[in-house]
Write a structure and sequence with these properties.
The chain contains 3 helices and 21 strands. The chain has about 290 residues and is mainly beta. The protein is globular and about 50 Å long.
């Protein structure tokens, strides 16, 4: 694996760099500093992530972010409080990179610590790899395992669990580029933001002007998580950890989620998206 002038890691696929992994981003505390992927490109070179956009400056490419870990904000921005709404609080946590047990041109294993108020809440092991599917598509395999490092139980929440209906974001999240026309979003059975948001589906696709992203849950637990989807206000897709209620994690317990993402040139239709998901699952050995 190579490194660029900023000390970030570059992931390669088909002999070219397709993603930069920002290991030590210099960010204000209010953005909940964390490692993330940006920019991510199609094989033709089209960017498919966005970093610190004006509409949500705490959106950082593709990665893991959770707005409420036992009251601590690892998402960035304001915190939604029952009866008060979005509120600025001094409660932001930091995901600290602690090492790479393994790294290569096409992937890495990373260890991280989730820290808030100088206390260690979670230890994470993150595994990321890439593989080519075709001359116009490649796959990103992203797994994260969060271990409760405290001496008691933890719970994960979202603005929705705190009273803001429709805002169950938190977990794996991908901020896509904002274009003049909102992207299309669909699953095998549903079409449009209203129908797809909150749905439990094996995969969800979002297509822009010249690019497509298809996200698939690669484990039974991941497939049970509803999808968080935005297209009208901004383009973003995530897998919701805390949708119906707060998610508990006991002392010494771990939760694991795995998302396989197809990054393709062009605008995929439903049939081609489904076919690429099948190819991607074979390529990464699901």
């Amino acid at each position: 694996m190579t490194m660029d002038v900023l000390g970030d890691l570059l992931l390669h696929c088909a002999g070219r760099p397709v993603a930069r992994y920002r290991t030590y981003p210099d960010l204000p505390v209010r953005l909940s500093p964390r490692p993330y992927l940006h920019p991510v490109h199609t094989l033709a070179g089209t960017p498919v992530t966005e970093e610190r956009p004006a509409d949500h400056i705490h959106h950082l490419g593709a990665g893991v972010a959770i707005p409420d870990v036992e009251g601590h904000n690892f998402w960035g921005g304001s915190t939604y409080l029952p009866g008060r709404g979005p509120t600025e609080l001094d409660n932001h946590g930091v995901q600290r990179h602690t090492g790479f047990p393994l790294r290569d041109e096409d992937g890495f294993v990373e260890e991280l610590e989730w820290v808030a108020d100088d206390a260690l809440l979670l230890r994470e092991r993150r595994t990321v790899s890439v593989a080519q599917l075709s001359p116009s598509a490649w796959v990103l395999d992203f797994t994260f395992s969060l271990l409760n490092a405290t001496e008691g139980p933890l719970t994960f929440g979202s603005p929705q669990t705190n009273g803001r209906s429709g805002a169950a974001y938190g977990g794996f999240f991908w901020r896509a580029p904002k274009e003049a026309i909102a992207p299309r979003v669909f699953t095998a059975e549903a079409e449009g933001e209203t129908a797809v948001h909150g749905a439990r589906a094996d995969w969800v696709a979002i297509t822009g002007s010249t690019w497509s992203l298809v996200f698939a849950g690669a484990t039974p637990a991941t497939r049970r998580d509803p999808w968080f989807v935005r297209t009208a206000g901004y383009p973003g897709v995530g897998s919701s950890l805390a949708f119906d209620g707060r998610l508990p994690l006991g002392e010494g317990e771990a939760l694991v989620r795995r998302i396989v993402t197809v990054i393709a040139d062009g605008r995929l239709d439903r049939e081609s998206a489904a076919a690429l998901v099948r190819e991607a699952e074979e390529a990464v050995g699901r």
